[in-house]
Amino acid sequence: MSERIGLFGGTFDPIHVGHLVAAVNAHHDLGLDRVVLMVANVPWQKAGAREVTPAEDRFAMVKAAVGEVPGLEASRMEIDRGGPSYTADTIAELSALHPGAELFVIVGWDVSAELATWERLDEIRDLATLVVVNRPGTPPPMGLLQDGWRLKEVTVPNLEISSTDLRARAASGRPLDYLVPAAAVRVIRERGLYSLSG
Known about the structure:
- With 198 residues, this protein is of the alpha/beta class.
- The chain has eight helices and six strands; from the N terminus they run βαβαβααβααββαα.
- Helix 2 (55-66) links the parallel strand 2 and strand 3.
- It is globular.
């Protein structure tokens, strides 16, 4: 039986419990062998919009947060490749590294509405099943099935957590406990990330 691999890419600036809830539920609900949390090197859609924490720091947070969670792993493939991070490049590389594997691209409902802005979308659609992580009672994004996607949905609890808010909380000295995994909070503190002086 072929390996089933989920690709969950992001800036993870910082990673938070909402990301992990999405990853573990996709892993469970779809019977995936593993979910790869792929840390973007240069998130091209955010470049110039705001300052992004260095990729090595974001990878350290994700690696710490994933820790020993069964079925989840942190990857620095996009960091090692360098330049802007495009899902099309990453899914092609995963396909080449794992011939015959069934690949899944995991995105939040909000991201699925922006798929039309992605680079080389047809290449992603040819190589992977799209997994949309939804909140309870949220209708599926319109148009994806008509656009030829193999589509799966995973429903997770409604957790209103935003990385933007978490960066602001950290900068003002408010606690991140229980919003960000404890191991990632330790990385943030050790590296002095998101401080007002930083």
